[in-house]
Amino acid sequence: VAFGSSCWSYKINFNSHLMFLAVAFQFIGKKWTLIVVSVPFIGGWVLLTLAKEDAAMLLIGRFITGFCGGMFVLAAPAYSSEIAETKYRGLLGTLMQLMVHTIDQSEGFI
């Protein structure tokens, strides 16, 4: 895999999960959104592990995991700030984003 070859998947999933996340927050809440999103996320990873030579299965698995991962990255800090004590809310939200961006920036070195 060449460096930067995964950038196309970011463009496909870019902001497509926001409308689903807004609806899910209102109807089922933040906690159940995280629980419900974990099921297709696991299914996407199963597709990725089973896609040996099947490009379509690989693309579908990438789309599902990207979609669910985007929802999780937005829903997790919202949920943790909702349940945390007031003095820890900022710290928890900041640490989540710091971890995500640190891992994202370190992909080029791995």
Short description:
It contains 5 helices and no strands. With 110 residues, it is mainly α. Helix 3 (29-50) packs antiparallel against helix 4.
Describe the structure.
78% of the residues lie in helices and 0% in strands. With 110 residues, the chain is mostly helical. Helix 2 packs across helix 3 (29-50) and helix 4 runs antiparallel to helix 5 (89-106). The protein is globular and about 50 Å long. The model has no long low-confidence stretch (mean pLDDT 82).
What tags apply to this protein structure?
mainly alpha
- N-to-C CA distance: 12 Å
Count of distinct strands: 0
Tell me, rounded to a whole number, the average pLDDT. 82
Taking the sheet with the most strands, its summary is:
none
> Rounded to an integer, what's the Rg over CA atoms?
16 Å
* Order of secondary-structure elements: HHHHH
Number of helices: 5
Given helix and strand content, the structural type is mainly alpha
Q: Which stretches are low in confidence, meaning pLDDT under 50 for 5 or more residues running?
A: none
Principal-axes geometry comes out as: globular
List the helices and strands and how they pair.
Blueprint: H1 7-13, H2 18-27, H3 29-50, H4 55-83, H5 89-106
